[in-house]
Backbone:
């Protein structure tokens, strides 16, 4: 019986072209493909252009006018509003204030939120399966509660608690023997107004981001933590080497959102310090914009402030993306893989 050799069937020209690195043939634009692109790409793009890009372009135009807001008459003034803005000491003070908020609020809030999340999810016994503390659900509810309360209510409540004469803060401090806080004006002193505002910010937002990090940590494979235990890593080392690299994308997103909230701070500040605080120590760009537009009826000038605030926000987001990309967490991921490999080796040696 003779051997038969089956020859491979010749491949099509298109596959050969693709194998040689050529460009594959284009698909025909059928009715289904065209309608798909229009429905899932064209319509969202049109909505984005209409409700995001167009208002921004229009704001840039109004920022170059002396529009009063309530009349159809206005003059084109070019960059005069922007020049005036950066010669305005009050605006520059507001810019420095929001820069301070953007630097401090996300860092403090996310550090505390991460600590709460790690304690709730990984703070249980050091032996046995990795698990959180007892009553974790109760602590999640308690930490999330301040975020449920509307921001304006939070601001008004803390404004009453910081009241120098009848506030709960001074009452508690004087009760424990700190007589220096009798009738102390927390929101009336330059040295304490901004720290008090930052405290309210953190108190109102830390619970939400703690719950966000808890959900992210729940998605980390449990064997990574077990490998870290076998390797002898403590809770702090585990958090730095495994937890943070694993939830780095969630931390980046949270940092950007918190930074934008700090730069655009209005509700908390308006409820606590509607006049910008002592010596404008807590004045924000949003407050300055609001006062210029509605109290002085200089809508063109106020719109210029809004444009600058939007640019500052974009720059902040770009900086955060750049920093996270440069610090990419590669070392932490290598440590996590090393823990996992050593755990696999330990299992293999035990067999």
Residues:
């Amino acid at each position: 019986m003779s051997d038969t050799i089956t020859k491979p069937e010749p491949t099509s020209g298109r596959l050969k072209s693709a194998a040689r690195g050529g460009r594959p043939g284009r698909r025909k634009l059928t009715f289904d493909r065209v309608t798909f692109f229009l429905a899932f790409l064209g319509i969202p793009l049109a909505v984005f252009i209409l409700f995001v890009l167009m208002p921004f372009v229009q704001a840039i135009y109004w920022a170059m006018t002396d529009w009063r807001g309530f009349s159809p008459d206005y003059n084109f003034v070019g960059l005069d509003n922007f020049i005036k803005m950066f010669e305005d000491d009050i605006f520059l003070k507001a810019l420095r204030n929001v820069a301070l908020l953007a630097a401090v609020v996300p860092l403090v809030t996310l550090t505390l939120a991460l600590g709460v999340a790690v304690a709730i999810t990984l703070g249980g016994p050091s032996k046995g399966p990795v698990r959180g503390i007892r009553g974790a659900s109760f602590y999640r509810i308690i930490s999330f509660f301040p975020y449920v309360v509307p921001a304006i209510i939070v601001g008004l409540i803390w404004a009453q608690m910081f009241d120098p004469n009848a506030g709960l803060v001074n009452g508690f401090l004087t009760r424990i023997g700190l007589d220096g806080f009798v009738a102390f004006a927390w929101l009336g002193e330059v040295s304490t107004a901004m720290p008090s505002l930052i405290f309210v910010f953190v108190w109102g937002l830390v619970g939400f981001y703690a719950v966000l990090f808890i959900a992210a940590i729940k998605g980390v494979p449990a064997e990574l933590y077990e490998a870290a235990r076998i390797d002898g890593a403590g809770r702090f080392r585990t958090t730095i080497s495994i937890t943070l690299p694993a939830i780095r994308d969630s931390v980046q997103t949270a940092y950007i959102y918190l930074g934008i909230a700090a730069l655009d701070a209005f509700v908390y500040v308006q409820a606590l310090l509607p006049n910008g605080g002592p010596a404008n120590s807590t004045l924000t760009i949003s407050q300055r914009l609001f006062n210029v537009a509605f109290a002085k009826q200089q809508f063109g000038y106020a719109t210029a402030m809004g444009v600058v605030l939007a640019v500052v926000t974009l720059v902040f987001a770009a900086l955060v993306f750049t920093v996270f990309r440069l610090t990419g967490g590669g070392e932490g991921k290598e440590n996590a893989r090393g823990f996992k490999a050593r755990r696999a080796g330990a299992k293999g040696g035990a067999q």
Remarks:
- Residues 1-5, 11-19, 346-351 have pLDDT under 50 and may be disordered.
- The radius of gyration is 29 Å.
- The chain is about 70% helix and 0% strand.
- Residues 171 and 278 are 23 Å apart (CA to CA).
